Amino acid sequence: MLDLETHDLHQERLQRVATLLKASGARRVLDLGCGSGRLLQYLMREPQYERVVGLELDGELLAQAKLLLENLPGSRRECLELVCASYTEPHPALSGFEAAAMVETIEHVLPEKLSAVEQAVFGEMRPSLLIMTTPNREYNPLYDMEPGELRDADHKFEWDRARFREWVSGVAWRNGYRVTISGIGDWDPEFGQPTQVARFER
């Protein structure tokens, strides 16, 4: 059996998202649910970004992100803003960014809050491009997990591929986006890939 959620898989996720954001040509990027700042660390290496905002509700994780990024050169530090807040709520100052990322964060949201996420992120912030990743529940048996067991104690749910496709397709249709679904990690003929990816474009 595989080790649960390897470090290499997380790095692969971060690199894929960072590559997609860079290729979009975006100059202003949101990291929604930025956690301890690992994706921000990738983004701040790229001089094309003129403004990067990390949004994180957990103050402890945000403090870790500040520590991780404290040694940025002054010119880059001026481009970065860290905000302690939730993406389930509207933030008018964060509307109109060219791109946004939600990496392994949507599954930490209570299901009854998903409509609020849709309204705040896709209805009001409305980035031109958004890259979202989340676990594929079908892959969990390959991690030697019990039925119903979640990959992280703080996960509120994990979607199978059909449910993920249904949700992201509905969000895209209701908010004027088109969405492309793919995956990250080792492919299994029965269970697919461990990480699901949705690329929303407006």
UniProtKB/TrEMBL annotation:
EC number: 2.1.1.386
Enzymatic reactions: small RNA 3'-end nucleotide + S-adenosyl-L-methionine = small RNA 3'-end 2'-O-methylnucleotide + S-adenosyl-L-homocysteine + H(+)
BP GO annotations: regulatory ncRNA-mediated gene silencing; RNA methylation
UniProt cross-references to InterPro entries, sorted A to Z: Hen1, Methyltransf_25, SAM-dependent_MTases_sf
Keywords for this protein: Magnesium, Metal-binding, Methyltransferase, RNA-binding, RNA-mediated gene silencing, S-adenosyl-L-methionine, Transferase
Ranges of residues in domain Methyltransferase: 29-120
Cofactors named for this entry: Mg(2+)
Single GO MF descriptor: small RNA 2'-O-methyltransferase activity
PANTHER family per the UniProt record, alphabetical: HEN1 (PTHR21404), SMALL RNA 2'-O-METHYLTRANSFERASE (PTHR21404:SF3)
Family recorded in the similarity comment: Belongs to the methyltransferase superfamily. HEN1 family.
Protein name per UniProt: Small RNA 2'-O-methyltransferase
Organism: Halomonas eurihalina
